[in-house]
């Protein structure tokens, strides 16, 4: 059994863990990233690819804005642009009530830099003639877009490695403990890690690592289901979402459309999931109705992924409330792809400076405890209806 | 007891029909689903529109088997639920999603027989995407169900019994067969003699096909390595290497295939455990002698459970029918079961001989030029797979898919999966077994987006 000593050990090589690794390497700290499988093979690599600020809870906007500044710089940061396209994100309202919700949201984020543009039925028809059906109106966030998660996530891991991080794949962390001389991590690959700091970015698998330090969290799991069509002629010029959820869609350069809006079901081993026939068909039908260009297209593949989900849609990001040197960053509830590069920087801030200039108070791990005691902020009120994930 | 059984049989070929027959005879009403408009499967495929051709014209020496199977199936009509032109596109625990008549229906089952058959196993070569290049199976379908040839002057290339059978069928149908190019050396065929004592009929039939082709003056070349198929909008010729020297021949169509590959996606979705079959050079669902997979209530028979041919498929299909009865504690004919297993054992031993007579060209993948298209749906070249192996240390097939998109297109790896695994194994220096198998995803074939939502199937 050999032991590797490092400044920071990161549990989980998803986009959160690897972007933290990359940011930490820029501060000169030694970093070990451990993943039980391939880096970026879980939520970060199989998500829908929506790079979207619009629709997020207000508390996430500053963090989301920080990430927003990173996306156009991918080429310089990780060597590829990851097919990132600033297409805009158009959120549709199917009813007047949904339109009113979009208007309320737009008013609340007016000063936060999203530059939302509201439009009614006619305006929408004129600008996006390829959208059909009963649509009352929409809200456009021109700076949002989409990217290819499969490429982005793998490239972040490789970039962290090139920057000097020690990336250990197929190395599950079994146990973490805090000793007087720092953290000890035992792995399933015959190697132990000794670290001054630990980052818990184990995604849907993060709860046991929090519980081990006396911090139980209500982390659930969701399994968003996605559908990809055969390539069709370019039609969708923006990333589409819908107020109230139920459908989201984007078209990639090769012509395939990716459509989501429903969930799959876990297999007996809840680390794995499968699309479910009926909901998948219903979302296919919704897409065929909403986008006439897809009416005669075929779906060629479904897939699902495993995502950590918090009851208030907000992630857990920040220092452990019990254990110095431990930092949590998980529970992105179906919306971590866009903000992950920002979260990585925040994690690096915390380790390097002991604090971050980006506000993250709403994401404290003990917020549920505090709410129970009646001392917390009113975290659960959120005017927006919850979306599946995009 | 038997009233509660709702077996679902996927595939109305030799295996599926024989399984249905056993169940129906026991008073159980199975649901039989098949993509084709008529029963019979690939080998005993029936014509869309009746024409003047006799079963003898269509199925040659196998005419009596074809007729018997069609008759059995026709006689079952009142005792089974049969859904032709229907695609089982997903399997969940005890429920299947079926696309039929523009609708998706759910069918609950207590037992599932996967008799999904096989399709051509292919590897790419220079020019394989030029119009006019067909698989052997495709060439056969054109002839059997549509009564047309794939070209006016056809070259058949590859390995496997189907190579000679299809060439012979074309000859019989009056098409012009320009040549047969066998990728195996002539000496390999001598292995067939080992099979004479156990399966004389099969061996002699094969020899007859080859002999008749030669007698009609059709050139048969052995030990052939394809160089390229030539042409632009249409095939104009083929060039190959044989004993170190290059040859070329004008033709307007090429039928090629390298044996068969089992259709295993549904077994994967059903959660069956897979094993690597050295003889098939492929992963297939693990099964016992009765066709039971690792999942209780799920059975696999016929070529979909490992390639063994039509005779074995009929026997194995029947055997799974009995297995369902056994597993439901219903009476069975144990003598019959013993006979079936004995015959299946003999065919299995013969299969090993066949494999030596028609060996898979194991060096083909390593010798492919870099610029040949490997995955035609996504237009990914052989070079991309090799690069991923070299630069990104890819050693596993799903990882290759994730990083290169190979197998992500319309065919979902059904056509390119063999080639991807062979190329990856040869580039990363691992065995075919070690590079693993592509995980299946629903839908197993493309589904129209406007498919009408679900209803319970009868
Ligand atoms: C299908 C789907 C669609 C989505 N669509 C979008 C979208 O469009 N836009 C958006 O913003 N977000 C989307 N999301 C959410 C987004 O993908 C996630 O929020 C984000 O990727 C989370 O990143 P992560 O690094 O926390 O998690 P992950 O990528 O899951 O990484 C966690 C890693 O930890 C590893 N790990 C776990 N346990 C251990 C252990 N014991 N030892 C070592 N390693 C371990 C895992 O192997 C994994 O690689 C979607 C999610 C899914 C599943």
Automatic annotation (TrEMBL), chain A:
Residue stretches making up the FAD dependent oxidoreductase domain: 7-350
GO cellular component, one term: cytoplasm
UniProt KW Oxidoreductase keyword: yes
TM segment ranges: none
Keywords, ordered alphabetically: Oxidoreductase
PANTHER family found in the cross-reference section: FAD-DEPENDENT OXIDOREDUCTASE DOMAIN-CONTAINING PROTEIN 1 (PTHR13847:SF287), SARCOSINE DEHYDROGENASE-RELATED (PTHR13847)
Name assigned to this protein: FAD-binding oxidoreductase
GO MF assignments: oxidoreductase activity
Top-level taxon of the source organism: Bacteria
Automatic annotation (TrEMBL), chain B:
CDD domains: GlpA-like_Fer2_BFD-like
Domain FAD/NAD(P)-binding: start-end pairs: 8-309
One GO MF term: oxidoreductase activity
Cited InterPro entries: BFD-like_2Fe2S-bd_dom_sf, FAD/NAD-bd_sf, FAD/NAD-binding_dom, Metab_Enz_Cyan_OpOx_G3PDH, Opine_Oxase_asu/HCN_bsu, SoxA_A3
Oxidoreductase recorded as keyword: yes
Keywords: Oxidoreductase
Domain named SoxA A3: residues: 378-451
Domain of life (superkingdom): Bacteria
Pfam families in the cross-refs: Pyr_redox_2 (PF07992), SO_alpha_A3 (PF17806)
Protein name: FAD/NAD(P)-binding oxidoreductase
